[in-house]
Structures are given as C-alpha cells and as structure tokens.
Design goal:
The chain has about 650 residues and is of the alpha+beta class. The chain is built from nine helices and 43 strands. The protein has four domains: about 25-75, no CATH class; about 90-410, 3-Layer(aba) Sandwich (Rossmann fold); about 415-590, no CATH class; about 595-655. Helix 4 runs parallel beside helix 7 (about 360-375).
C-alpha cells in the first residue's frame, strides 16, 4: 500500500511539473566567449567552464536579451530510467524490448492522461469492493459475500460504468475475462505486485455486456457503445465477437460503430479465435479497428482469424510455447483470473495464468491508442494512420490479409519530435489550414516557411499547448514545400513536407517529382508525407503514377482499399475523399479493387451452385479446403448440411446448406 501511495503521488508530481513547464520554460543559453555579467529576469544559474547560463523565460525574450548567444535551446527533461518492479514483469514478454517495450514508454515520459477514458466492453471488471446483490449470489462464489477489487487495480482510476446484463450501475466481473483484459491495459505499474499494464495514467470505464458464462446480447453491446460515446470514452475495447464471417442481424451494431467513429471514438475489436480466413464481427466491420494475434516470434498464432478488413496484429500469445529454450511453456499473456469452481468464479481469490487469444492482443492496441490520444491526437483516422506508419511490416510487403498493416511499435510511434496533426482546405478561398503536434520536449520551433521556385515566405503561426497552427494560400498552381525550422536537443532541425496546390485562378496541371501527375476540374491541395498522399478535402483529383510493376500495386485510403487501374507502365486512380492514400506494391499478390469483390450470403436451394468464376474454391466453416469450381459450378451433392464459403479473388460468398 505504501509503494502504491508513493507511486500515485509520483505520477501526480510528474503531471504537475509538466503543467508548470508549459507556462515557464527553462532554456540553456550558450556563448562562445566569456559569459555576460548581466543577469536578466528568470536567471537561474551559470557555468563558466562550459560557458552557458540557464534562464526560466520566454524564447523570444532570451533572444532579444542575449543577441550574442551561440545557441539557445530548451533544457532537456531527465527522468529515472527504470524497469517496472512488478513481481512477474519478467514473464511479460509482450512488454519486453522486442515487443511493446514498456520500459521505453516509461522512459519517454508517455504516461497517458486521466482525461482519456477507455471503455472495456466485457464480462465486467473486479474494480470495487461491493456487496453481491441477491440475484447474483448463486452465480459466483465469495467467502465474504462481496465482490473484491483485484489488488493490482488499486492504482487505476475507474470512472462510472454500467452493467447492461443486470441493468445496474455496478458492472462487477462474474467471470474473470474482463479483469484479465483490463490488466493488459492498466494493471498498476511499478508497485512491486503481480504484473504491469501498458498505460500508467488512464481512466477505465467498466461496461458489462457479457454474463458469467462469457456470453452476451448484441443490443447490450450496442447500448454500451452508445453509453461509452455519450460519457466521454475515446477508446472502446471489444474483446468479443460472433461466428466467423457471420454479420446477419448486426446492422444496428454496425451503425453504432459508424457513429462512434464519426464521433472520433476508436472501437477496437478482436478478430476471433477460430483460425479461419474470415473475421468475426464486429471486427469485420470496416469502421472498427480489428486486431489479430501474433506470438513471441511475430508469427500469426494458430487461432488468430485473418482476412478482409484485418487492420493490425499485437501480442496474443501461445500458452504452450517455449520462448527462451528453458523447457518451460511461457508463451502466453500473463493475466489475473478468479479461481474457477463448479459453483462459479470465486470473486475473492485471483491467480495469474498464461492466457492466449485475440482477446488479449486487442487491449495491447487499445492502450497504445489511448496513449496517442493523450499526446493530443483527436481523430480515429489520425491515430490509425500513425499506427500504420509505425508498424513492423509482417507477412507480404505492405498490407496483407494475414497481418493487416503489421505490428505497431511504441518506438516508432513516440520517437519523432514533431508530426502533422491536421490539414483542412477551404476550397472557396483556396486557404490551407495546417497544424503540427510536438510529440516530446526535444524540439523548439523557430519559424515556418512556404517555398517554391517562385515563392519563399515566412508564415505566421501560433502555439497552443503542444499544437502549432498556421495557414497559407498560393496564387499559382504548383509544387510547394512547407517547412518548420527549429532545434532538436540544441541542434538545427527541419520538418519539411511537399504540397501540391492547384489554385482557383490557375488550373494548370500539377506534377510532383517530375512523374506524379495530378489533374481535375476543381482546385485542390495534396500533401506528400513519406510516400503517402494526404488529401484534406473531397476534391476529385485524377492521379497518374509511372510504375513498372503496375499489376501488383494496390491503393488504400486510410485502411481501406480503393479502385486502381493498372497499365503496362503506370497506375491511375481517383482521389475523391478526405484521407491518407498509400500506394502499396506486393509482388506475390495481384490486388483487386474493392469494387471488384462480390460479397453476399446465399441459401442453397439445389445441390449445384452456378458460378461464373472457375477459379473459385469451396471451404467449410473451419476454413478447410473442399474442392475447386468446375465447368462454372460447384457441387454440394455429397456434403452435409452446414455453413460453407466460396472464395476467389473476386468472390466471397457465404453459403447455407440446410438439406
């Protein structure tokens, strides 16, 4: 208890220090010659050996007061470099250096924010000490007749949730699954107890949608999503799902997920544990962020479902896997679970078990999403695109159906000092509104310029917290560069992005790098960011890009495929909506456009299914291959009643045979 108390106050102190640093910055001012004798307001100390002074003041004031300074830069923050001392942290391979690297996250000072709420839609959470209601007493076991808080949650900030199964305001865990999932996200860090979570400072909202057996109703999940959105959640973790590929009757839940995304609430859902090449829903919905599972060696686990609309993979574990050659099976995700008895879960006694499943890969990614929200990102698209950029590319190059965009790594997400935040384009005035975000305190901004062959001008900007805002326009169509100049750890640093702008008055063709041609009826702006094209509006723009391997190129807007036309020496596609466009080459796969894939459900009425694609194959519900299409048909004559799938590059049909 004493260690937990000290740790909580240490976190509070860090937050207070950061708040104070926003209004009063300490700067180091270096000189090549002797130090000046004058001491301006905010002077803290001097060092004659290394010729610098330290001043707590405004950057511009310091520049005016010391024009002879050779360097002026923000004093770097230092913090203790520690590995969490949680008792079983050494068994948490998913938080090791090769994987989510919790020590790195803590060392970077990415501690989260209590204003960011993660809603956990599950079996409830062991989050409070509370008398067991009479209608629940026969469903669980308790020596004290009370639910007990899991001891490693004492440092977690829980906010008011709801029990949609029992229809009350005490969503306690009668199964254990929700407690295990929550521990991955937020088990108290560095308290010399049990395990460590990923995020040190976050609010958790328990939303009970599954009963004591782990089963639940779709409308309870819908209600929980609406409740979470209405009550301030930024992330909703759904470690649950239905049968693979079956979305019948899920339209209303799909609508709730769409509404959540439109409210910039990220819904993360487990891909499923049946190992087949179809996702379970709600993970299968395009607007959800679907999460598959990999093991210690970054291989897709035997149980992880994959296929169309898979977004990312994270550690899900394989229990019976020896990860260090010592002969012991330690490949699972270490989580707490209540003792399971014939009479139900013992809600007073918790034990640590190695677990496996996409239920546990999903909260890994939910925690990362919450950390990104805490840094100042505000939209789902921003965070998804950051995760894509910061992922280890597993499987086939670029996007693939087995690993999605890959495995997001904290080092890639949190290392860069500055990044694009938002871009908005007012087509009526041809003005671009541009903002950047400072991801850590190593960078100090000096100026922003807009330049081209004909233009070189300084842009006005203002800062608000860790956000930087500016705007610009141009009379001539063409290619421009917008560059933020400053210092990173005392050294010159520039953050540059190229901008293609077609103005209202000049409708000439715009060419990037002498090869990428952009044309259209409307004025437009496009940003080029490390191989991506960012469109901040719904301007319709025709893009032509030379490519020697055109038939193996796919185009994605955010995480969704877009139609692309391949020629012998180029690809052509249309940008018609706001988003980030990626051009992905995969030499092993010809990527059809989204419009070419036929998806439908069929109730079989005869033993022969007519089909126009002789490349189609028939699979059973488990994903086992049965036979190929022949002479434009597939025969079900000797197959038992059940669910089947017909698949090819252009077809994904679910077949129900009831006879």
């Amino acid at each position: 208890m004493l260690i937990s108390y000290i740790m909580r106050n240490f976190i509070l102190l860090l937050c207070l220090t950061f708040f104070l640093s926003l209004s009063a910055e300490r700067y180091i001012v270096e000189f090549k010659g002797p130090l000046p004798e004058r001491k301006t307001e905010g002077f803290i100390k001097s060092n004659t050996k290394y010729n610098f002074i330290v001043i707590d003041s405004d950057f511009e004031k310091i520049k005016m007061s010391y024009p002879d300074a050779s360097k002026i830069y923000r004093e770097p923050k230092l913090h203790s470099l520690y590995t969490p001392n949680d008792t079983y942290f050494s068994y948490q391979w998913s938080l090791s250096e090769d994987h989510y690297n919790l020590s790195y996250i803590l060392d970077r000072g990415v501690v989260g924010s209590l204003s960011v709420i993660i809603g956990v839609l599950d079996t409830g959470i062991a989050f409070e000490n509370f008398a067991i209601p009479s209608d629940e007493q026969g469903l669980v076991v308790s020596a004290t007749n009370e639910y007990e808080m899991y001891s490693d949650f004492e440092g977690v900030n829980f906010v008011q949730g709801y029990d949609f199964v029992s229809d009350d305001s005490h969503p306690n865990d009668m199964n254990g699954h929700g407690t295990a999932v929550t521990s991955v996200i937020a088990a108290t860090i560095n308290n010399s107890l049990s395990t460590a979570g990923i995020i040190d400072n976050v609010s958790i909202m328990p939303l009970r949608v599954l009963d004591e057996t782990g089963s639940g109703n779709l409308t309870d999940i819908l209600d929980a999503i609406e409740y979470g959105v209405a009550n301030g959640c930024k992330v909703l973790n759904l470690s649950l799902g239905g049968e693979p590929g079956d979305s019948n009757g899920w339209d209303i839940l799909h609508s709730a997920i769409i509404d959540a995304r439109n409210s910039n609430v990220m819904v993360l859902a487990a891909s499923g544990n049946d190992g087949v090449s179809l996702l379970s829903y709600p993970a299968g919905f395009e607007e959800a962020v679907s999460v598959g599972a990999v093991d210690f060696y970054f291989d897709r686990t035997y149980y992880s479902q994959y296929g169309t609309n898979l977004d990312f993979v994270s550690p899900g574990g394989v229990v019976y896997q020896d990860i260090n050659g010592d002969g012991d099976d330690e490949g699972g995700i270490l989580c707490p679970m209540p003792e399971q008895t014939e009479s139900g879960a013992n809600v007073n006694d918790f034990y640590l078990y190695f677990m496996e499943g996409t239920s546990f890969s999903t909260p890994h990614l939910s925690a990362l999403a919450a950390l990104l929200y805490s840094l100042g990102y505000s939209t789902v698209d921003e965070i998804v695109n950051l995760m894509i950029d910061g992922s280890i590319d597993l499987g086939d190059a670029g996007y693939d159906n087995e690993y999605g965009w890959g495995y997001p790594k904290p080092e890639s997400l949190f290392e860069q000092p500055i990044a694009i935040k938002t871009i908005d384009f007012d087509r009526a005035s041809n003005i671009v509104f541009y903002s950047m975000i400072l991801l850590n305190d190593t960078f100090s901004l000096d100026s922003i310029t807009l330049s081209s062959l004909l233009v070189n001008e300084n842009l006005n900007f203002f800062e608000k917290g860790n956000l930087i805002f500016t705007e610009f326009s141009a009379e001539k169509s063409g290619l421009y560069s917008i560059t933020a100049y400053g210092e990173k750890n005392g050294e010159s640093y520039a953050f540059k992005r190229d901008v293609a702008l077609r103005s209202l008055s000049d409708r000439s063709l715009v060419v990037y790098n002498g090869t990428v041609q952009m044309s259209g009826e409307d004025n437009f702006v496009l940003f080029f960011d490390n191989g991506k094209i960012i469109s901040p509006s719904d301007s319709k723009i025709e893009i032509s890009i030379p490519h020697e391997n055109a038939e193996h190129v796919a185009v994605y807007c955010n995480e969704s495929p877009r139609p692309v036309e391949a020629f012998d020496d180029k690809i052509e596609f249309t940008i018609s909506q706001k988003g980030v466009y990626r051009i992905v080459e995969n030499n092993r796969v010809k990527n059809p456009s989204a419009d070419e894939i036929s998806k439908k459900s069929i109730l079989l009425t005869s033993s022969v299914l007519e089909i126009s694609d002789n490349n189609a194959k028939l699979f059973d519900k488990s994903g086992r291959f049965i036979l190929n299409a022949k002479e434009n048909s597939i025969s079900f004559e000797n197959l038992p009643a059940g669910i089947y799938f017909v698949k090819s590059k252009k077809i994904l049909w679910k077949i129900a045979k009831l006879f």
